[in-house]
């Protein structure tokens, strides 16, 4: 285990994990809303989801062919973030920095 106290180690892993998870579910929300609202809709919920997720979409667009439709691009961004979350988990596990589960009775 690392020299970091348990609370610091907990938040060192959980903060990026929670941020990536929130962004992933926001992308799913954007995909579902894109089935209901047109791209030029002025609804507040649609504009908010677009503003939050647009930087991720633009980053994925760099490595994705231009022929891919934006709805599919949103799902690809979701998959990329899933892979990043998995890499964060594997990286922390390999370094021995995953927070330990305490208070569990051992048989």
TrEMBL record:
It comes from the Bacteria. The keyword Transmembrane helix applies. Keywords: Membrane, Transmembrane, Transmembrane helix. The chain crosses the membrane at residues 18-37, 72-98. This is YggT family protein.
């Amino acid at each position: 285990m690392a020299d970091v106290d348990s609370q610091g180690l907990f938040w060192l892993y959980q903060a990026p994990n929670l941020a990536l998870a929130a962004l992933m579910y926001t992308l799913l929300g954007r995909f579902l809303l894109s089935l209901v609202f047109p791209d030029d809709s002025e609804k507040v919920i649609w504009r908010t989801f677009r503003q939050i997720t647009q930087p991720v979409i633009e980053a994925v667009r760099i490595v994705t062919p231009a022929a891919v439709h934006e709805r599919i691009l949103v799902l690809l961004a979701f998959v990329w973030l899933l892979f990043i979350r998995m890499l964060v988990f594997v990286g922390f596990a390999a370094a021995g920095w995953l927070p330990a589960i305490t208070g569990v009775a051992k048989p």
